[in-house]
Specification:
The protein is mainly α and 205 residues long. 43% of the residues lie in helices and 8% in strands. The chain has a two-stranded antiparallel sheet with strand order 1-2. Strands 3-4 form a two-stranded antiparallel ribbon. Helix 2 runs antiparallel to helix 3, helix 2 crosses helix 5 and helix 3 crosses helix 4. The longest helix has 21 residues. It is globular, with a radius of gyration of 20 Å. The termini are far apart. Bound molecules: zinc ion.
């Protein structure tokens, strides 16, 4: 049932429940030759939302339709993506980011109070995203949303490691590539220390 198409195109396992929407939103970002920016314009954003919103809606037990998105909405959404991406990277938020958006509180048939997105266009999506981030910050799942430390990858993954210590979306690909680069650098340093300008290496005295 779950169709987090943006995350799946990078082979990423989904974050639990509604938080998958935030992860999928961040993974709309284009990564080199691997995938284009799915929020490049209104048409692309609409195509992404047409898959992601029903997935989210089903997971949350809501009955909502994806908002209509123009090129201007897409531009706003890219700014929201950047703001959320910085939060994930642990950078302090700059002011109120994209500005406040509304959300509505509703009672479900089973008596649960639910947070539902409000507004139209990009605001509706921002409302759904901030709502999920708020819930994730309360239940401890938000801190497991991470950006892969491989700068060439930059995909957003959900860290399922026991002590929340993961830094690679996939240790086999990104982790090994980084370890290989580091060990090559160490080997170069060991085999060709003379390449360093005299005095540049403090430990070489
Ligand atoms: Zn990666």
């Amino acid at each position: 049932m779950s169709s987090w198409s943006a995350s799946q195109r990078y082979g990423l396992a989904s974050a639990p429940g509604g938080l998958g929407l935030v992860q999928d939103f961040l993974n709309t970002v284009g990564i080199g030759d691997y995938g284009p920016d799915l929020l490049a314009d209104g048409a692309h954003s609409g195509a992404w939302a047409a898959v992601a919103v029903p997935t989210w809606s089903a997971l949350r037990g809501l009955d909502v339709r994806p908002p209509t998105l123009s090129d201007a909405d897409a531009s706003k959404l890219r700014a929201v993506r950047e703001t959320i991406g910085k939060l994930v990277a642990g950078e302090p938020p700059m002011g109120r980011g994209t500005g406040g958006v509304s959300a509505s509180l509703a009672l479900s048939e089973t008596g649960e109070v639910r947070l539902e997105p409000a507004g139209s266009g990009w605001r509706w999506l921002a409302s759904a995203l901030w709502g999920e981030i708020m819930l994730g910050q309360r239940d401890g799942t938000w801190r497991r949303i991470k950006r892969c430390h491989n700068s060439h990858c930059a995909s957003t993954f959900y860290d399922r490691s026991k002590n929340n210590s993961g830094v690679w979306h996939d240790v086999k690909t990104c982790g090994n590539a980084a370890n290989l680069r580091a060990s090559r650098a160490r080997r170069r340093e060991r085999d060709y220390p003379a390449q360093n300008p005299a005095g540049a290496n403090p430990s070489a005295t």
